[in-house]
Amino acid sequence: MLSRFRNHKNKRKEGYFLKNGAVMLEQLIHSFNGNCNPIRMYFGKELKKATNNYNWDRMTHENWNFQLYKGVHDDHEILVKKFEGDSNSCMDPLELITNEAAIASNMSKQKNVLKLLGCCLETELPTLVYEFPAKGILSHHIYRGSQLLPWQTKLKIAVEVADAVAYKDRGSCSCSTMARERGSSIDI
């Protein structure tokens, strides 16, 4: 009985991997004519271990369709973006995720955008893995700080975010949206 359960679970993972991998590859080729930076493939087990089984204490942010978890993999801090399907969304969640991965892989050279390290395709919806921002997540500095930021700092943040958006727009991206959670290493 246990063997049959494992086989079913492995077949389901394999099905997710093939489906998600095909959509991801198609999006990467379509969006940038095949010219994108390579990303690493992570196993689900690796990400569970890195995030202590997606422990609530490791969650850094939660949104309507994803959670961000801080983790450690190979002695490096990572940010794991785990998605949930939303039946109320007008867009296909898989399309949104693969679009984000395509844009993020192309923008990995931009200094003020989180670097996409890779993804896990074994889950129902792909899980994205980013570098952990050394200076913390920008929204935490803006919204959770006990002090208001000086206007010079706010202006610097606005200019650097605008630079990141302009960098995206100057690229050869044919993606329709930029569905990115803006992380940053902007000096504050």
UniProtKB/TrEMBL annotation:
Look up and give the organism this protein is from: Prunus persica (Peach)
SUPFAM superfamilies reported in the protein's UniProt record? Protein kinase-like (PK-like)
Which Pfam family, any one, appears in the UniProt record? PK_Tyr_Ser-Thr
A GO molecular function term, named singly, is: ATP binding
Provide the alphabetized UniProt keywords.
ATP-binding, Nucleotide-binding
Q: How is this protein annotated for GO cellular component?
A: plasma membrane
Q: Fetch the InterPro entries from UniProt.
A: Kinase-like_dom_sf (IPR011009), Ser-Thr/Tyr_kinase_cat_dom (IPR001245), WAK-like (IPR045274)
Q: What is this protein called?
A: Serine-threonine/tyrosine-protein kinase catalytic domain-containing protein
GO terms classed as biological process: cell surface receptor signaling pathway; defense response
Residue ranges annotated for the Serine-threonine/tyrosine-protein kinase catalytic domain, each copy included: 72-167
